[in-house]
Sequence to fold (456 residues):
Amino acid sequence: MEEVIVRLGIPQPKQKQFFMAHRKFVAFGGARGGGKSWAVREKAKRLAIKWAGIKILIIRKTYNDLRENHILPLQADLPPTFAEYKEKDKSFIFRNGSRIKCCYFDNDNDALQYQGQEYDVIFLEEATQFTESVFNVMKACLRGANAFPKRMYLTCNPDGVGFLWVKRLFVSCEYEANENPDDYMFIQSLVDDNKVLMESNPEYVKQLDSLPDDLRKRWRYGSWDVSESQYFGEFRRDIHVCEPFSIPAEWRRYRAFDYGLDMLACYWVAVDALHNAYVYKEFCESDLPISTAAQKILDFTNDDENIYLTLAPPDLWNRSQETGKSKAYLFEEAGLKLVQSSNDREAGWLAIKELLKTDVNGQSRLHIFSNCKKLIKYLPELQRDEKRPTDCATEPHEITHSPDALRYFAVYWTRPAPSPKEKRVRYRADELEDYRRATSQEERDRIIERKGGLPL
Ligand SMILES: Nc1ncnc2c1ncn2[C@@H]1O[C@H](COP(=O)(O)OP(=O)(O)O)[C@@H](O)[C@H]1O
Ligand SMILES: [Mg+2]
Fold:
């Protein structure tokens, strides 16, 4: 076989530790410029050379970052006769049979296409840019009937939508019953550990030093305190989550939900005499047509629950062009009468913030029963919208439904939307005729509700 020269870089001490780490899940970095991406591609190269036939996957959030950090540098280091790059599936095929596949997940759902595939080693670059569901899907791909190591290497910065799960597993080390603490390991690397960069580009360190306080703490010094990008940074499990208890009959109970075909997220909330709100039940399910969604909400409500009203977003009152009926109308036909909440996002988020706020005794007005798992998970994961910092980001979409449902409750409860009977709106001639000809008050009320007000 023809001789080739393959360039292998020389690791710095922290990178050496990373190369030697043998736990199943190894997280590396935790700050900017620590030499994470360098370590990923060098480790991948070394594994591919050592274990003939091994299957390696490198994941990044965007194609551009994947190309700049991995595909181009690997192409520069690996002669094609030794490892040929195939653009079609972004893979380096080594002549010993090993393979490094590079991929990017713009959207967290992109991970699903890897479900059922097998890899020996997976690198999840910038893991904090992904939700925990990506980590869960990808860790199920770590398998294969062979003697190769099975590992996932993660790099991370203390920010982004994945801030909390990465922090839990690798920094605060709070494990759940099905997680083995011995599987996890974190190796911190700061820019100071990357002497090559410190010497070649001292400007970079100066840039990090001149960042605003919060960013400097995280990107320069690797602090995992509350992340600025988190919208509800005030959320605290010890304050806002409580164990379920039996709710006194006299407390007023509400339901609030967000509905789309992709997801129904419904919450039951009880309010005590002091105006504390307790979110006590959740129901989330995807792909439910309206009639089934209505039925499920009703089935999940006990006969003695005595719901005061059920809140839903105003767009459910838009009429379908084909049938002329609104979703709210269809819900009502299926036995679930709805009350319109407001979709003023900023007012809604502020209303939640108001409920989360703690008083001098450290008590807040919002309490979530520990069985409402999705809300407890997604509320702190919501990110600030980069362009409108007073709003939440709408991506990743799947984490928004539960907070949206809570928002419809909070905004209504603290500032009710005007009742349709206090508003007047323009009716079309045919609608006006329907209204005048209505044979009962009930029918007329339904028209008023559907139109969002009385005729002008
Ligand atoms: N051991 C090393 N030898 C040579 N250059 C390195 C080494 N480690 C890091 N670098 C260089 O330092 C810079 C920052 O490293 P990088 O891996 O991109 O950091 P991070 O991904 O942590 O932000 C890059 O230019 C990288 O090539
Ligand atoms: Mg990097």
Observations:
- The chain has three domains: 13-220, 237-414, 420-455.
- The pocket of magnesium ion (ligand 2) is lined by residues 36-37, 69 (CB under 6 Å).
- The longest strand covers residues 277-285.
